[in-house]
Amino acid sequence: MAKTKTTDKVTLPDSEFNRKWAGEKNYKVVKRRKDPRFGEVTILKNHQTGEVLFMKENMVNNKAKATENILQLQSRMRLNHPNLLRMVDYSTEIKS
Fold it and tell me: What single string gives the DSSP state of each residue in 40-85?
């Protein structure tokens, strides 16, 4: 069974992706949403600046889908608009 880390309100599965952000003292996990079609999104808030941002995790069936997904996520990370949350990280894994 996978180890878990608990932040203020949300329990995160123990993975390299989550360890990177769960240990950050400046960020608090506000919300975590999981959708089988679109992946898992974690919304974070910076304690010092109040900035709200998000990171996304996806599971795909094959390498072609993973490549397509990575290209889409890289494009999304470049978006910068006051009405959009800023994406700070992503992870794409292939189901085995």
Answer: EEEEEEETTT--EEEEEEEEESSHHHHHHHHHHHHHHHH---TTSP
Residue 61: which region, alpha, beta or left (left: phi > 0; alpha: psi -120 to 50)? Answer: alpha
Tokens of 91: 């992870």
What are the per-10-residue average pLDDT scores of the chain (96 residues)? 40 53 73 87 88 89 89 91 90 83
Q: What is the pLDDT of residue 10?
A: 40
Tokens of 38: 């679109």
**Residue reference for tokens 């949300």:** 10
CATH of 4-94, one of 3.40.190, 3.20.20, 3.30.200, 3.40.50: 3.30.200
